[in-house]
Design goal:
Blueprint: E1 4-10, H1 14-25, E2 30-33, E3 48-50, H2 52-58, H3 65-69, E4 78-86, E5 92-101, H4 104-118, E6 121-123, E7 128-132, E8 135-138, E9 142-150, H5 157-162, E10 170-179, E11 186-193, E12 196-202, E13 207-213, H6 222-233, E14 236-247, E15 260-262, H7 278-298, H8 303-331, H9 334-353
Helix pairs in contact: 1-4, 1-7, 7-8, 8-9
Bound molecules: flavin-adenine dinucleotide.
Amino acid sequence: MNTDYDVVIVGAGPAGSTTAEHAALGGARVLVLERKKAVGEPVACGEFLPSTEEIKAIMPKADDLHPLFEVPSTLISRPMETFRIYSPRGRYWNIPFQGYTTDRDRFDKHLASKAQKAGATILTDTLVTAVQGNEVRTRNEVYRAKVIVGADGPVSRVAKGLGLPPNKVLYPAVTQQAVGDFEPVMEMHFGIAPGAYAWVLPKGKGANVGAGVSPRWAKKRAGDYFQEFVKARGLETVGRMMGKYVPSSGPISRSFTENGMLVGDAAGHVIAVNGGGIPIAMICGRLAGRAAAERVNKGTPLSRYEELCREQVYKPLRTAVHTQWLASFFFGSPRRLEFSMVVLGERRMGNILRCRPSFP
Ligand SMILES: Cc1cc2nc3c(=O)[nH]c(=O)nc-3n(C[C@H](O)[C@H](O)[C@H](O)COP(=O)(O)OP(=O)(O)OC[C@H]3O[C@@H](n4cnc5c(N)ncnc54)[C@H](O)[C@@H]3O)c2cc1C
């Protein structure tokens, strides 16, 4: 088997598959290594995506979004137009916001198949154990690449191998499917306990329910708060509860080396105020894929990738980190949180959701 590639990508999530697609479209020979047996399974995600118009409103400097976020209608589980934000005392505000839930396993498979159609090879059930120089090691093989991309999620082994910084702050979060009928409104519940939040995101059938915690304030684990929330709401859940980390400190300070890049969760490409990371993983994945192909074809330095990420998406991501930092003063006390949410009101909450400053 061939072990020499132009580009080896670790991880076949949205970041890895989008990087692979665009590197292959640029003419590079691309291999993706994924530790899961099947791409996208099991699901540990709220499965919500903003509409392309909302993504544009959040990241106005990002290029050419429509082709990136066009999905077959079969991947839209439930379209929705309202976020309902609940305070600790059960007050709520309806924020107009367009988006949809998907089935994240099928969504990730769709992105992987686009990468394969562009010419990338994807090997599943293949854990990368180390990255050193231009080598990517698995249990059975050593692959060599001109460019190595870490798209391996919030706790990135590739970051370590490339000598790049890790995510500084990780929020644990869990999710499970609930059965039943739900109105087409996306619920976010803040302050279900000090430092804890929960969501109910309706799908075509049932809903995705989850909870997350700020390690700074929470006294229990995300799974404990989740169980309390599910019980209090009288929800019936099915399948396994799945947990993962949400990077919450914004983009890492450096995401490239001479021969490597980090993208998606591995690079902190997540909106800190709501944990949304799929759109940014795809926007930066496309930039990483193009940069990898340009490096292979013309020797263009990979620093260009980070320059473009900074121009297109870092400002809103940094605003979200700042808002989250401000919110952290209130998040530890339900009384203070209630007060701050009343002061914010609907319009400012809409600004926060769209990564704009909450004041003025
Ligand atoms: C509970 C929860 C709910 C969320 N809800 C939403 C939401 O509703 N909307 C939204 O936009 N975002 C949401 N997010 C964030 C979103 O899931 C991530 O931002 C997104 O998945 C990032 O994509 P990625 O490709 O960077 O990483 P991932 O999707 O994590 O993909 C990384 C891949 O790398 C593989 N991998 C890791 N290490 C190795 C290795 N050593 N060798 C081989 N393969 C490896 C993993 O198996 C995985 O498939 C949520 C996160 C959590 C935890």
